[in-house]
Design brief:
This protein is an alpha+beta fold. The chain folds into two domains: 11-53; 57-201, SO1590-like (AOC barrel-like), CATH 2.40.350. The protein is built from two helices and eight strands; from the N terminus they run ααββββββββ. It has helices at 11-31, 34-47; strands spanning 57-74, 89-102, 104-117, 122-134, 139-151, 156-163, 176-186, 191-201. Helix 1 (11-31) runs antiparallel to helix 2 (34-47). The longest helix is centred in the first third of the chain and has 21 residues, at 11-31. The chain starts with 10 loop residues before the first helix and ends with a strand.
Length: 204
């Protein structure tokens, strides 16, 4: 095991490891050879290891909070941010800044494209770049694509996210991952809060 990246063993995995070692010892008595028994014990232990125990995989749970908006360009009504009278929809682009906390501790900038309909529902797509740290995996930056973004007229927000290939830098180089976003949009401020969940995969 690489001493610079220790695996945190939970109780269930520790029990499985102990059982695997016991099985390996039994096999050793039958076939002889300490190396063979050790190899078999390791294989058996890893086969039963919960996914969360792998150092290269992180089940993500984090929270986000938008903190500011800039560079807005829109065809919407400047007061209501709804389509102008007689129009079925309006569109816009903006830059949104914010912070992420939890497994990801970072600041972010998002380039957002969106459309609003007469009903008050809206859809969006965003390219969001994070710079900060990820628990147990160092520091760096990466960009995600937020797709299938939907905000209801009541402010319920849902979307999917995926790390853009080749965007991760620093300790995150080679990282991939995907998941979902759930949150609440405040139409009076134009800011959103919520959570991200999913899985991140690391190469080191």
């Amino acid at each position: 095991m690489n001493s610079t990246r220790q695996i945190a063993l939970d109780g269930a995995f520790a029990s499985k490891l102990e059982s695997a070692v016991g099985t390996g010892k039994k096999i050793m008595r039958k076939i002889g050879g300490k190396r063979n028994a050790l190899a078999i014990a390791i294989v058996l232990a890893l086969a039963g290891m919960p996914e969360a125990a792998w150092a290269k995989t992180l089940r993500l749970q984090s929270s986000f909070a938008d903190t500011g908006i800039s560079d807005i360009e829109t065809t919407c009504d400047p007061v209501t941010f709804l389509p102008k009278t007689g129009e079925a929809s309006c569109v816009g682009i903006q830059t949104t800044s914010g912070t992420e906390s939890g497994a990801i501790a970072a600041g972010y900038l998002a380039d957002v494209s969106w459309a609003v309909f007469e009903s008050g529902d809206s859809v969006y797509t965003a390219y969001t770049t994070f710079t900060g740290t990820i628990a147990g995996h160092g520091s760096g930056s990466f960009t995600i694509l937020e797709s299938s973004g939907f905000i209801s007229s009541l402010g319920k927000l849902t979307a999917r996210w995926q790390v853009l290939k080749g965007s991760a830098t620093g300790d995150f180089a080679g990282m991939t991952g995907s998941g979902k976003i759930q949150g609440t949009y405040d139409s009076t401020t134009g800011l959103a809060t919520g959570t991200k969940s999913g899985v991140l995969h690391f190469t080191v």
